Amino acid sequence: MKKIALIAAISIFSLISCNEKLNSESSNIKENKEETKMIPENLKYAYFSSGCFWGTEYWFEKGKGVYEVVSGYAGGHKINPTYQEVCTGLTGHLETVQVAYNPDETTYEDLVKLFFETHDFTQKNGQGPDIGSQYLSAIFYQTEEEKEIAQKYIDMLKEKKL
């Protein structure tokens, strides 16, 4: 009988301890939600391909005024390709990042400059050790103004014979 009482007491103590742990974790979750970054209302988006998207993501995340960088694919002929499909080089897609930025803190031109500064845009069919058409360098502009900014940098680099 004493063993049953002891087991019951330990079980009750364990349940109370677990409940306290859950309550404290719940309050941490609430605190973390309150600390999330506010999304600026005027976010703009830019799209760049410069090799492996994880490396590209790394550099753009360090950019001033950049809110978020998301990896994905651009171009190509297959709808919603998988990573494995894109890696074959047969879908026509490029590994691409979407850069969400606050135009009050940075400009599209600053992002284009960062794009050219952080990879070897002269390398053919890849980037560094990553070889394949999915790693090519590209800027996906959305407006005529963005096209002109990108073209200005391309022309300047051609003039310098880079």
TrEMBL record:
PROSITE patterns reported for this sequence: PROKAR_LIPOPROTEIN (PS51257)
Every Peptide methionine sulphoxide reductase MsrA domain range: 46-160
Example GO molecular function: L-methionine:thioredoxin-disulfide S-oxidoreductase activity
Pfam families the record matches: PMSR
Sorted UniProt keywords: Oxidoreductase
Statement: the UniProt record of this protein carries the keyword Chloroplast: no
Reaction equation(s) it catalyzes: L-methionyl-[protein] + [thioredoxin]-disulfide + H2O = L-methionyl-(S)-S-oxide-[protein] + [thioredoxin]-dithiol; [thioredoxin]-disulfide + L-methionine + H2O = L-methionine (S)-S-oxide + [thioredoxin]-dithiol
Enzyme Commission code: 1.8.4.11
Enzyme class, broadest EC rank: oxidoreductase
Organism domain of life: Bacteria
Coiled coil: none
Tagged with keyword DNA damage: no
Spans traversing the lipid bilayer: none
Entry protein name: peptide-methionine (S)-S-oxide reductase
